[in-house]
Automatic annotation (TrEMBL):
Residues 39-402 form the FAD dependent oxidoreductase domain. It holds the Pfam family DAO. SUPFAM superfamilies: FAD/NAD(P)-binding domain. One of its GO terms (cellular component) is cytoplasm. It comes from Sinosporangium siamense. InterPro entries: FAD-dep_OxRdtase, FAD/NAD-bd_sf. This is FAD-dependent oxidoreductase.
Amino acid sequence: MSVRVPLSDTFVNGDVSFWYRAEGIPRPGAPLDGDTEADVAIVGAGYTGLWTAYYLAKARPDLRVVVLEREFAGYGASGRNGGWLTGDLAGTPERFARTHGPLAARTLQRAMFDSIDEVVAVAGAEGIDADIVKGGVMQVATNAAQDARLRALLAHDRAWGWTKDDLRLLTAAERESRIRVAGAVNAVWSPHCARIQPAKLVRGLLRAVRGLGVKVCERTPVTELAARKAVTPRGTVTARYVIRATEGFTADLKQYHRAWLPMNSSMIVTEPLPSSVWEAIGWNGDELLGDLAHYYMYAQRTADDRIAFGGRGKPYLYGSRVDDRGQTHNWTISALWELLTGMFPAVADHRVDHAWSGVLGVPRDWCSTVHVDHASGIGWAGGYTGHGVTTANLAGRTLRDLILGEDTELTALPWVGRRVRGWEPEPLRYLGVHTMYRLYRMADARENAGLRRTSALARIADTITGR
Ligand SMILES: Cc1cc2nc3c(=O)[nH]c(=O)nc-3n(C[C@H](O)[C@H](O)[C@H](O)COP(=O)(O)OP(=O)(O)OC[C@H]3O[C@@H](n4cnc5c(N)ncnc54)[C@H](O)[C@@H]3O)c2cc1C
């Protein structure tokens, strides 16, 4: 697959992400200045680390909270994502129900929905302008097999407590009046999603936590995380609690190397598109857009009238290596462009302005966790499998309650304290993930060619990777 992609004169591949284009890449703040004592040390300044710091500082202004960040706050997925503040669970209700029962899994789902409003409310209260619009999400099926999956998704979510107000089928007229996707055969719509500008949210959060007195040290890599201490080349932080909030980069920490697999996702963004294109597409920009392909896509209309369009990215790197500063492969850019212009032919006369990729953390059972071990003081949250924008907020509030030793509705949620086995050693990891990608591509091709149900190849891929 290698179509010619029209690139703008200002095209950039990498440089963290498009979301930093307007403001420029942030100049990292001061690093840690020697050995330090704290109450809570948090490793990683993405949404997880910063929300945790935010809620701790709000609840207990007397606590000494230190955040240690290897690059700059928002360098990771939090500054690169698709901007879906989504109500989707980072995991499956079946797996959460297995340990805590179906009611607990439903409660977790409701907590996700509420977390969207919590993020919107805090952004408003803290004066964080992150281009937030809560306009829901439309998911389209563009072939018969995807349509079958869409109907199965609807039935599945109904069985897990989603009402018609949470998710519903659109009529063809409703679908067309929202977003006109070429080849769409069906669509569902849910109000539980908001568009955000990811980097504005994470940098706004940084300002808020610094304003609350939290010390955020940038350019400070943690090389060892152990009971009550985080070791860096610039000194050791000794703290009652040490929280790992490193998501897709977790494999870099030796003792957690096989905990979460770093999986890539890539995005492209167009130039600002003229009104003629929007008239053809009919997208007023309120809702997010996704599909039901195995090589899925996700998109938003940005506040400045571009389409930011993402999907599965460049392949997993051998040994769980993580990326450089967000560069992606040319063939990934071609694949995304082909998908985008297939869905929106009117975009084909315009150009791509930026492409990038990032890593997300995937646990062996594809279900996120949050945990604090009071004996060692070590805690963590993550493994969001690409659904971390909202989940990280729920994680931050849950880690606050766990650290403060409070039994609350949040600490009773079924993702708290989940134990999951690690990934297989190499080369099995590499072979498994690459096989999954190949099978998903083949499954999509067969379904696009007329297969009316989900290809068996996709089911094999799910089995191999434990999805
Ligand atoms: C391209 C892409 C699109 C996505 N789209 C969406 C979406 O639309 N909706 C959604 O819900 N989710 C999406 N996700 C996932 C979502 O962005 C993440 O789940 C979420 O941002 C994770 O936040 P985090 O703070 O846990 O991790 P990160 O934002 O990755 O932050 C981890 C931080 O830890 C730092 N760090 C790592 N190791 C160390 C160390 N040893 N010492 C010090 N610091 C360290 C990193 O530099 C980084 O800043 C997407 C992800 C990608 C990559």
